[in-house]
Design goal:
There is one protein chain. Strand 4 and strand 5 form a beta hairpin. The chain is globular, with a radius of gyration of 16 Å. It is α+β, with helices and mostly antiparallel strands. It has one domain: Alpha-Beta Complex (endopeptidase fold (from Nostoc punctiforme)). Helix 2 runs antiparallel to helix 3 and helix 3 packs across helix 6. The relative contact order is 0.20. Strands 1-6-2-3-4-5 form a six-stranded antiparallel β-sheet. Helix content is 30%, strand content 13%.
């Protein structure tokens, strides 16, 4: 039996620290929907690959006036400004949770996936983070927005903007144990291809409960979504 999860995660007993996969059993999901608790597939990673780096606020201020709205560079700068933002003890409380809950998209995904609005407050937030960045950088129409990583990846695929090449500003979708869209666990933004089988990324909802810059092996990547940036 196949059921579509609400935003994103394999449901653990404790909703506060979600390292939950995108594949949710029908039994668990049915119980979640029955109680109005969404199953999230926006999946925190607990590996320690790469390092956390604080944003250089002086450089951000200098660059802000130079960057053109709607470019990959703008998106990455907006994301870098958030490095170090940390979730609360319940796994939520970030500006990205608050923004998503107040956005029209939250109502759309609730209508699509079920559950209740308050469940987003402490939900896994990697997809909400990337959605927030797209909104603030002025590229949401071509980047999309969602709280469920699998549906978001399928949206890029349907838009024919899905591929396997790491590009700066691409939305990168990860799976820790498989290589199909339905198994996607986590999402971030590509900062650069390091040319050695790894990519540098900026991600929210890492294993440390933060926005961090990471270095990840391409073997964990399911695919990339490509927003339509200005040249």
């Amino acid at each position: 039996m196949t059921m579509r999860p609400f935003p994103s995660f394999r449901m653990p007993a404790n909703l506060s620290r979600l390292a939950v996969g995108a594949t949710v059993s029908a039994t668990v999901l049915a119980g979640a929907l029955a109680t109005g608790t969404p199953a999230f597939a926006d999946h925190a990673d607990h590996s320690q690959v790469g390092t956390t780096r604080a944003a250089d606020t002086s450089q951000v201020a200098a660059d802000k006036q130079q960057l053109r709205r709607g470019t990959a560079q703008t998106v990455l700068r907006v994301a870098e400004q958030q490095v170090g933002v940390t979730e609360n003890a319940a796994g939520g409380g970030t500006p990205f949770h608050k923004w998503y809950m107040a956005s029209p998209r939250a109502q759309q995904t609730l209508a699509r996936d079920g559950g209740n609005l308050q469940a987003y407050a402490n939900a896994p937030w990697c997809a909400m983070f990337v959605s927030w960045v797209g909104e603030k950088a002025g590229v949401r129409p071509s980047m999309g927005w969602d709280a469920y990583t699998v549906t978001w990846a399928k949206w890029f695929e349907n838009e024919q903007r899905w591929g396997n090449t790491a590009k700066p500003g691409a939305v990168v979708f990860f799976s820790w144990d498989a290589k199909s869209i339905s198994s996607i666990d986590h999402v971030g933004l590509v900062k650069k291809d390091n040319g050695d089988g790894t990519i540098t990324t900026i991600e929210g909802n890492t294993g440390n409960g933060k926005v961090e810059q990471r270095v990840r092996p391409k073997s964990q990547v399911v695919g990339y979504g490509y927003p339509q940036y200005k040249a």
